[in-house]
Amino acid sequence: MKTEFFLDLGDDINFLKDSFPELEFNLHKAKVNECSFFSVISCCIDNEETIECLWERINNLIGAEYLPTLNDFSSWNIYFILLSPQKISNPLKYTIENDTFFVRKIIFDNQIKCVKKDHVAKLLNDHILGDDIDVSPVSNQVVQSEPNYSPITQSLLNTNLPLGRINNDKKRRNTWLDKVILEVDNHEI
User: Fold this and answer.
1) What does the DSSP assignment read for 41-67?
2) What global pTM score does this model have?
3) Which tops the pLDDT comparison, 186 or 41?
4) ∠ at Cα 28 (61, 132), nearest 5°?
5) How many CB atoms lie within 10 A of CB 42?
6) For 1-35, how does the pLDDT look when each residue is reduced to its tens digit (9 = 90+)?
7) Could you tell me how far CA 95 lies from the centroid of its own chain?
8) Residues with Cβ < 8 Å from 79, sequence gap 6 or more?
9) Among 3, 35, 67, 80, whose CB has the most other CB atoms within 10 angstroms?
10) Cα 102 to chain centroid, rounded
């Protein structure tokens, strides 16, 4: 079974619809197995000012109302997606997307003029599940090349330094290291 996002029409996010009746929320899920899934709560907001005012309240509600209803795997795989037809400023995007409280957050801005519900699933499949990544088979021919080591590394590999913890072994390693440091110091400009 291939994992894909689908629009979930259940009652799981009515708490958001009731708290913010002026906004449209959708829940997309991608089943991993019988009892674990990724979930994405999406919200289309027209402008940056509204996003700035509401994102934290929405995030907190998701954490308080939705998160406790999930099992361990699913609770670690929740996304809150903000869709906006306008360009969102980089500082606000950075603040929101790097906030790790409760859920991962992603902003899709500027490129989205009119998002239809079925297009959101494709967007999520590509962005979260990596469906747009083409994995081509690689030939079985292995190309091996000799590593290109620095002169110091080559010297270390060719020197049979003892690896023991006794003082004589430590002294030999330190003598070798002092010699290399002097050579490097002499060649610096």
Assistant:
1) EEEE-S-HHHHHHHHHHHHHHIIIIIG
2) 0.66
3) 41
4) 125
5) 24
6) 578 887 888 778 999 999 999 998 999 888 888 88
7) 15
8) 38, 39, 40, 41, 103, 104, 105, 106, 124, 128
9) 80
10) 15
